[in-house]
Specification:
Layout lengths: L3 E4 L9 H16 L3 E6 L9 H13 L9 E2 L4 H13 L3 E4 L3 H7 L29 E4 L1 H6 L7 E4 L6 E4 L2 H7 L4 E4 L4 E2 L1 H11 L4 E5 L6 H10 L6 E5 L19 H6 L4 H7 L3
Helix pairs in contact: 7-8
Bound molecules: glutamic acid.
Length: 279
C-alpha cells in the first residue's frame, strides 16, 4: 500500500483539540490516498498511561467519525521485544548504563543550553561497560559511536509539513549539540523510550507517512539514526502546525479546559470540532 499512517497518542490524559487535529489530518490524508490509518497507544510509561484514557481516546475518535484499520497496537505488551533490540545495540557497543539524576546533569552543565529541546547529556557515564549496569540505571545511546558505524550520507529524510518542507540530511554536529546521548531505556523500570519503540513500530506496521505535531520535528534525526542502525526504512514525515489556546500557548493533556470531552458535553458536533481546528 502506498500510504500507511497512524495516530499514536500516549494515553496519559484526555484528547484535546490538538490531538483531534492531528488524528483527523492523518485520517483524512490516508483516506484521500486510499491508504491505511492505524491507531497505536504508546503506553510504555506504565505509571502515567491508564486504560481509561485509552477507552476515552477511542471513544472520542469514533465520535469524530474516524475508523482505524486493523487492531489497535499497544506498546506495553512488546517491552521484551524492544529490550531484545536494545541488547543488539549493547552487543555493538552502542549503549551504556547511566545513573545520573536530572540534578547531576544540571550541575555538570556549566551553563544553560540554548536552542535545544532537552538538556544534552554531558557524557558523565559514557565509557561505563554494560557489565556495570545496575537495576536502577538508565541506558543511553552513545551517539558518537553510533554515528561512527553509519554512512552519514544515508542519514536523510523527507519532510512534507509546512514549516520544514524538503529533503533533510541529518547533521552529525547538530545532532551532537542538540540531541546527544539520549536515554533509550529508563531508570529503574524496564521502560523503553518513545524514540526506540516508535521507530520499531513504524517499521513493523509498514508506516510510510508519519503525520504529527511540529513539536516532534526535532526528534526526527534521532529516529533516522535508529532506523539506519537497524536497517529500517525511513517514512516520509509531515509535521503539522500546533493548535494553540487563546494566549498562543501549545495545548497540553493537562489543560482539561480544551479536552474534547468538554466540547462534546457542551453540545459541539464533530463538524464544529473540524471548524475549530481549521479543517
Ligand atoms: N506518542 C507521541 C505523543 O503522544 C506521538 C509520537 C508520534 O506520533 O510519533 O506525543
Amino acid at each position: 500500500m502506498a500510504f500507511v499512517t497512524r495516530f499514536a497518542p500516549s494515553p496519559t490524559g484526555p484528547l484535546h483539540l490538538g490531538h483531534a487535529y492531528s488524528a483527523l489530518l492523518a485520517h483524512d490524508m490516508a483516506r484521500a490516498e486510499g491508504g491505511a490509518f492505524f491507531l497505536r497507544f504508546e503506553d510504555t510509561d506504565l505509571e502515567r498511561c491508564k486504560p481509561e484514557y485509552e477507552d476515552a481516546i477511542a471513544d472520542d475518535l469514533r465520535w469524530l467519525g474516524m475508523c482505524w484499520d486493523g487492531p489497535i497496537l499497544r506498546q506495553s505488551p512488546n517491552i521484551a521485544a524492544y529490550n531484545a533490540r536494545l541488547d543488539l545495540l549493547a552487543a555493538r557497543g552502542l549503549i551504556y548504563p547511566c545513573c545520573c539524576t536530572r540534578a547531576d546533569i544540571r550541575a555538570a552543565l556549566a551553563a544553560p543550553q540554548e536552542g535545544v529541546a532537552h538538556a544534552v547529556y554531558p557524557g558523565t557515564c559514557r565509557g561505563r561497560s554494560m557489565d556495570s549496569r545496575r537495576a536502577e540505571d538508565a541506558l543511553r545511546l552513545d551517539l558518537n559511536a553510533a554515528l561512527a558505524q553509519l554512512s552519514l550520507t544515508a542519514l536523510i529524510f523527507t519532510e512534507t509539513g509546512p514549516a520544514h518542507r524538503g529533503v533533510h540530511l541529518v547533521d552529525p554536529m547538530a545532532a551532537q549539540a542538540t540531541i546527544g546521548d539520549i536515554v533509550l531505556s529508563r531508570k529503574g523500570e524496564d521502560i523503553v523510550a518513545y524514540f526506540l519503540a516508535s521507530a520499531f513500530d513504524d517499521a513493523d506496521q509498514g508506516i510510510t507517512h508519519v503525520i504529527r505535531g511540529e513539536d516532534l520535528f526535532d526528534f526526527v534525526p534521532i529516529q533516522v539514526i535508529l532506523q539506519r542502525l537497524f536497517d529500517l526504512p525511513t517514512p516520509i514525515y509531515h509535521h503539522h502546525r500546533l493548535i494553540r489556546d487563546a494566549h498562543g500557548k501549545r495545548l497540553a493533556k493537562r489543560d482539561d479546559a480544551r479536552a474534547l470531552s468538554k466540547f462534546r458535553a457542551e453540545g459541539a458536533s464533530p463538524a464544529d470540532i473540524r471548524r475549530m481546528v481549521g479543517l
